[in-house]
Specification:
This protein is mainly beta and 143 residues long. 13% of the residues lie in helices and 48% in strands. It contains two helices and ten strands, in the order H-E-E-E-E-E-E-E-E-E-E-H. Strands 1, 2, 3, 4, 5, 6, 7, 8, 9 and 10 form a ten-stranded mixed beta sheet that branches. A hairpin with a 5-residue loop joins strand 9 and strand 10. The longest helix is centred in the N-terminal third of the chain and has 14 residues. It is globular and about 40 Å long. The N terminus is likely disordered.
């Protein structure tokens, strides 16, 4: 009975962190450049705050996380960060105005794919593999 209770507690605690939903896209025209921004929406459906601590993709040697920081006189600068916070029961948008993900030295090998894989690592939630959509600028506006 104690073993069964232990397993139930473990499953319940794990499922509390399994509720991060992700969708991501890049703009096709941006792929002509070496460094490409990734637009993403991460929704933490858990009651536990989390952090995105790593993103990886086979089409770029590194993915850099950045954040815009405003000083006391209103000047905004962008700094690399080690993680992106994901508040409990909240949505976090990743785009040019707030937190950012940048693919460096992008190399697409298979002609004109519609998606590419990205692997996300969180401080609490299990890792996820997502498909990043490659969209024309007009379609990206509707996201």
């Amino acid at each position: 009975m104690t073993r069964l209770l232990s397993i139930l507690v473990l499953l319940c605690s794990h499922s509390a962190w399994a509720d991060i939903k992700a969708s991501a896209w890049v703009i096709k025209a941006d792929l002509k450049h070496h460094d490409v921004p990734v637009y993403m929406v991460l929704t933490n459906l858990s009651q536990t705050a989390d952090k995105l601590i790593r993103a990886e993709t086979p089409i770029a040697p590194s993915v850099i996380m950045r954040q815009n920081i405003q000083n006391n006189i209103g000047v905004v600068r962008t700094e690399k960060v080690r993680s992106i916070p994901l508040p409990a029961l909240a949505m976090q948008q990743i785009h040019a105005d707030t937190h950012q993900l940048w693919l460096t030295d992008v190399r697409l090998k298979n002609g004109n794919p519609a998606t590419f894989p990205m692997f996300l690592t969180f401080s609490n939630a299990p890792p996820q593999r997502i498909d990043v959509q490659i969209l024309d600028a007009a379609n990206a506006i509707n996201k």
